[in-house]
Amino acid sequence: MNLSKKAALTSAALAALLLSGFCRVPKVTPPMPWVVKVTAESDLEGIPLRREYTASPKMEAVLGYLRALQVTPPPPDAGGPPDGSCRIELTLSDGSKRVYFQRSNRYLRKDDGPWRTVDPAPAPDLPALLSRFPSDG
Q1: For residue 136, what is the enclosing H or E element?
Q2: Does residue 123 fall inside a structural domain?
Q3: Which of 14, 29, 33, 113 makes an SS bond possible with 92, Cβ 3.0 to 4.6 Å?
């Protein structure tokens, strides 16, 4: 068998394998964006605090706080969120932002979503957490 015939058969065999699905090319999915900056503003206990974090341990402390909150839909007679506020903005690696709003340790919403009732018992104390960690930079 001459060389050109061998190359043609090899190419045909490779094409058949690819078309049959035997040699699948894995789908490449872009990586999920990650948090690169956390900005927190709190006035939950009448003491205004503003912090910006880019260091991982400090950002992780605030993210841990958000993860620890247990939220449920608010009762129909809640009458809207009470006074007192907290705003936590997460800047992601792709430039997008997620903003969490908290009112009086009792209500939480993400971006423009609905207010949810918070059970703050399992979460750490946010003003104490922000007081413990000064801003980066």
Answers
A1: none
A2: yes
A3: 33
User: How many domains are there within the chain?
Assistant: 1
Q: Provide the 10 A C-beta neighbour count for residue 39.
A: 18
Mean pLDDT of the chain: 80
Tell me whether residue 65 is in a domain: yes
**Contacts with 112 (C-beta within 8 Å, 6 or more apart), sequence order:** none
**Single-letter code of the amino acid located at 4:** S
Full residue range of the structural domain in which residue 42 is found? 35-132
Would 17 be classed as within a structural domain?
no
Token pair of 122 as six digits: 């399992």
DSSP string, 56-117: HHHHHHHHHHHHH-EEEPPPTT--S--S--EEEEEEETTS-EEEEEEETTTEEEETTS--EE
